[in-house]
Known about the structure:
Layout: H1 16-24, H2 26-42, H3 52-90, E1 97-101, E2 113-119, E3 123-131, E4 137-146, E5 149-155, E6 169-176, E7 179-181, E8 183-197, E9 200-205, E10 210-212, E11 218-219
Antiparallel strand pairs: 1-8, 1-11, 2-5, 2-8, 3-4, 3-6, 6-7, 8-9, 9-10
Helix pairs in contact: 1-2, 2-3
Amino acid sequence: MIYGTGGVDSTTTNTTSNSKNSVTDPNEAQDRFLKLLVAQLNNQDPMNPMDNAQMTSQMAQINTVTGIQQLNQTMTSMSSQFTAMQVLQGTSMIGRTVLTEGNTLGVAVDGTHTAAFDLANPAASVKVQITTASGELVDTIDLGSGSAGRNYFTWDGKDKYTGDKSQLRYSVTATNGATAVASTTLSPHAVIATSAANGSLALELDNGDSVAYSGVKAVY
């Protein structure tokens, strides 16, 4: 460590903004180090001067700190550029339909809704119930058996419901005899825009929701 002596003033008079800049700026840090080093050499005890090894060690320390600060600044800049590239590349998703965790039917294509669900294990019996947002039963679809993993189903509902079908909900009941099989419902929605959230690509959906790209289960 370097200790200032004599007339070295350690009082900080800069504003908060200037203090932050001087702390993170490698050139400022190196300049402060050299000033302290010169002050220490001018005020050292002539009978017990600082030896070369100690000076070399201190110079090596400041070089290490400066290098780390420069590396941090470079990584921050690269992270910002990478995020911007992600958003630009993500524009290719606009207009595509993605599956994300949820239980809405989304917008119909040619009057038919297509949604999906994941099963933890094979199921001998799989039924899908279509309900309104308030929970009123609209229709029940018996899909028979289901395989483990991704399963799709379609529903037109033109004779079942005359309201806004994009607001309908669905649930999956899967069983093997008396044993329930865990399921995860997946909602289809169109991508209308892309953005960045916490340094990651986010997709804006037609229902007003925003989902991280990592949360997309399928694209079609």
